[in-house]
Write a structure and sequence with these properties.
Number of strands: 12
Radius of gyration: 20 Å
Strand order of the largest sheet: 2-1-3-4-5-11
Order of helices and strands: HEHEHEHEEHEHEHEHEEHEEHH
Largest sheet: 6 strands, parallel
CATH class of the largest domain: Alpha Beta
Number of helices: 11
Strand content: 15-25%
Shape: globular
């Protein structure tokens, strides 16, 4: 067990500045007074959108908070900077490893080149990367999910909830990862409706640098366009941009389906929650915590670590009573889930 030396949140500002200067940006809960390797605990470096996205990055932070509470050690969480390069990301991860954080996790596929580079330089530190399976190293855990499975269930929910027989999908960035969400969703809609429900899709940007995961205004505009085409359920896989989708759904009195976190419960979205039918969740918090726990126990996870319906790490949130209390809808979703887990239904990922 590492030494217990947990800093107060109130003291984070000074530490944040110190780490920002050494690691190219962000906020932190770490103490800059020690460079003793192995002395500290979990550190995460956020993806585009940063903390406060009510989705992907906030889920990672929840895992960090759990580890901090469980193990009583120092942690760090670092924001991305606008227009940063792979070299910036590598410098950030190197700084965290040098200061003794272990494990160090890059939140998002964009960290793949940096994790691969830095893991070679710090073989005694365990690294993790969320949403990428291409970094193959003895000290790296690739934390990935079967998002298409949760999205299939979201498609079933959409098909069973639409009255117009038109539903929407808004993807943040036109990349293979988000194609998984769209593919599963479309298949779920198709199977549940017998082809009677149409899906209209739109991607906000071609690259993350253009703001596809960080622009609520883009998400709102896209959702409004789909609603004009009669979509009365809109599913967003777009990070922070998804907030705009949810806002548009609420304003137009149609359903939104959230992503990654249970967005019905998110404080920043509270005024829209009655319009959030459900959320296709993936338990990034659990994946982050489990990696920290494995390091703490001296048996670090490495290689591909996948969460799916069978492990319970992807699924649909049931916080909205209108969703949870709809017996017919719940039966359809449970049947679909059982068939996916058994292998009777093979969900497409592209």
């Amino acid at each position: 067990m590492r030494r217990v030396s947990r800093i107060a949140v109130a003291g984070a500002a000074t530490a944040s500045l110190a780490l920002a200067l050494s690691a190219c940006g962000g906020t932190s809960t770490e103490s800059s007074s020690s460079d003793s390797k192995g002395d500290k605990g979990l550190a995460i470096a956020y993806d585009v959108g940063g903390k406060g996205d009510q989705s992907f990055n906030d889920a990672a932070y929840a895992g960090l908070e759990q580890a901090e509470k469980e193990f009583g050690y120092e942690t760090a969480d670092i924001e991305p900077t606008e227009g940063e390069t792979d070299a910036d990301k590598a410098q950030r991860l190197s700084s965290l490893a040098k200061q003794g954080y272990n494990p160090v996790i890059g939140v998002g596929y964009a960290y793949a080149p940096a994790v691969k580079e830095v893991a070679e330089k710090y073989p005694d530190t365990t690294f993790g990367i969320v949403d990428d399976s291409q970094v193959q190293a003895d000290n790296v855990a690739d934390l990935v999910f079967s998002e298409e499975q949760a999205s299939y269930l979201a498609g079933v929910a959409a098909a069973k909830s639409t009255k117009s027989n038109v539903v929407g999908f808004v993807g943040g960035v036109d990349i293979p990862l988000i194609h998984k969400f769209e593919a599963g969703y479309k298949q779920g809609v198709e199977d549940a409706s017998g082809g009677k429900v149409k899906v209209v899709s739109q991607y906000l940007t071609q690259t993350a640098e253009e703001g596809g995961f960080s622009s609520p205004d883009k998400g709102k505009t896209a959702a409004e366009g789909q609603i004009e085409k009669k979509a009365d359920v809109v599913y967003a896989a777009a990070g922070l941009s998804g907030q705009g989708v949810i806002e548009a759904a609420a304003a137009n009195k149609v359903w939104a389906i959230g992503v990654d976190s249970d967005q019905y419960k998110q404080e920043a979205l509270a005024k829209y929650k009655d319009s959030i039918l459900t959320s296709a969740t993936k338990d990034v918090a659990k994946a982050v915590f489990n990696l920290a726990q494995s390091v703490e126990e001296g048996k670090p996870e490495t290689g591909i670590v996948r969460g799916d319906l069978k492990t319970g790490e992807v699924g649909l949130a049931d916080s909205n009573p209108k969703f949870a209390d709809d017996a017919e809808l719940q039966e359809a979703i449970e049947t679909a889930k059982e068939k996916i887990v058994s292998g009777e239904i093979k969900v497409k990922s592209s």
